[in-house]
Design goal:
Helix 1 packs parallel to helix 2. The strands form three sheets. Strands 4-3-2-1-11-12 form a six-stranded mixed sheet. By secondary structure, it is α/β, with parallel strands linked by helices. The longest helix has 18 residues. It has three domains: 228 residues, 4-Layer Sandwich (Purple Acid Phosphatase, chain A, domain 2); 61 residues; 81 residues, no CATH class. It is built from 13 helices and 15 strands. The C terminus is likely disordered.
């Protein structure tokens, strides 16, 4: 039986990454290889916030494999709370089985996410007892967990190789959760950590990530575990811009060969590009998506001018902020303590708040939140 193993999809609202890259790759694999079953190794979802976009992507993902048996090992990002996963509240087809606890099915063992040392120890003690007393000559473990022998840069609390030191039967341990691909052989233990299916915008994502086809009827290891590299390396770029011209200037510095996801953080108001031009630029520079977000940045302020203006009341503050196209609420949502140290605006707002004049309740609440978050400013009040 051939099983396609897919790890860490992390479906989120970045629709185009999945639509343009992940789904076409999966379709190519379906067309090229004869697959009997699908196993998802956890973290299908990026968070418990199931937006309409995420649900649409999930439906499309599952629909691609409607003719296959599907097993989903629950990952930490699939959890709504300690006992409930997102799959518990979704209507799923009869071809889908959810694995939310340690499960034994003959030579196949499934380990959903474990988040404490005590459960790790008891789980692997149970697995060892099962394998020692089983008549099966080899085992396949499908897991979504963190292990020190998989990812040397993580400070983890469990040694995978030590856990199976007394097992002399071939053991194929296939794991999700860690985003960097990792493969290790120390007979009779074979470890395959797949990483994310595509290198999403995580700091620990590998340049290329992988799928795996497990053929439990094959005789040699190369045929038993067939690694399929996805062939895509998405490069993420973020630029701060003050004008529309900087969009073109920045894009012209990029290599047109690799696949890109570009975000422009506009630190000046009213920077946009129309949809037709956006599509042309994406095609020209091999970009999945060009995203422009408005970002309040104190680099747009001239501290010298602000010091000279020295706002005394709410009217003065509105006048200063209007020059930069931002509101009091937007100013208060900025998270840089360094920025607050450059201007008297926040302190004037605090004085106005205590005088109880000229502020909306929503802005008053934001001031309190800002003070609580950036407690260092108390020294200046």
């Amino acid at each position: 039986m051939k099983t396609l193993v897919i790890s860490d999809c992390h479906l989120n609202d970045d629709f185009l990454i999945f639509q343009k890259i992940l789904f076409p790759i999966l379709q190519q694999i379906i067309d090229k290889y004869k697959i009997d079953k699908i196993i998802f190794l956890g973290d299908i979802f990026d968070s418990s916030s199931l937006t309409n976009t995420v649900l649409f992507l999930f439906k499309k993902l599952i629909t691609m494999f409607v003719d296959y048996d599907i097993e989903i090992v629950v990952g930490n990002h699939d959890l709504i709370d300690k006992k409930t996963s997102a799959f518990d509240i979704l209507l799923l087809g009869d071809n889908i089985k959810i694995v939310n606890r340690l499960t034994f099915r003959g030579q196949y063992i499934y380990i959903p996410y474990i988040n404490n040392k005590e459960d790790f120890v008891s789980t692997f003690a149970e697995i060892n007892d099962y394998m020692k007393n089983s008549e099966h000559v080899e085992f396949f473990i499908y897991s979504h967990n963190d292990f020190s022998s998989l990812y040397k840069f993580r400070n983890t609390f469990f040694n995978l190789e030590g856990a199976f030191a007394n097992i002399n039967k071939p053991l194929y341990f296939i794991n999700g959760h860690n985003h960097v691909p990792f493969f290790k052989v120390r007979h009779p233990l074979y470890i395959a950590n797949l990483g994310c299916v595509i290198n999403l915008n995580f700091k620990d994502s590998g340049e290329f990530n992988n799928f795996l086809i497990v053929d439990d009827e094959a005789d040699n290891i190369n045929d038993k575990l067939k690694i399929i590299q996805n062939g895509y390396s998405i490069q993420y770029y973020t630029f701060k811009i003050k004008s529309e011209q900087e969009i073109y200037d920045r894009l012209n510095t990029l290599n047109t060969d690799n696949v890109k996801y570009v975000t422009f953080k506009a630190i000046a108001p009213n920077i946009t590009i129309d949809n037709e031009l956006r599509l042309k630029l994406q095609k020209k520079f091999n970009i999945i998506n060009i995203n422009i977000v408005q970002e309040l940045s104190m680099t747009t302020f001239d501290p010298k001018n602000i010091d000279e203006e020295n706002p005394k009341d709410i009217s003065d503050i509105h006048s200063i902020l209007d020059k930069y196209g931002i509101t009091i609420s937007e100013f208060l949502e900025h998270n840089s303590i360094e920025a607050f140290e450059k201007t008297e605006i926040l302190y004037t707002l605090l004085e106005i708040m205590f005088e109880d004049v000229g502020l909306e309740q929503e802005d008053r609440d934001k001031i309190i939140k800002t003070v609580n978050k950036h407690y260092l400013i108390y020294d200046k009040i």
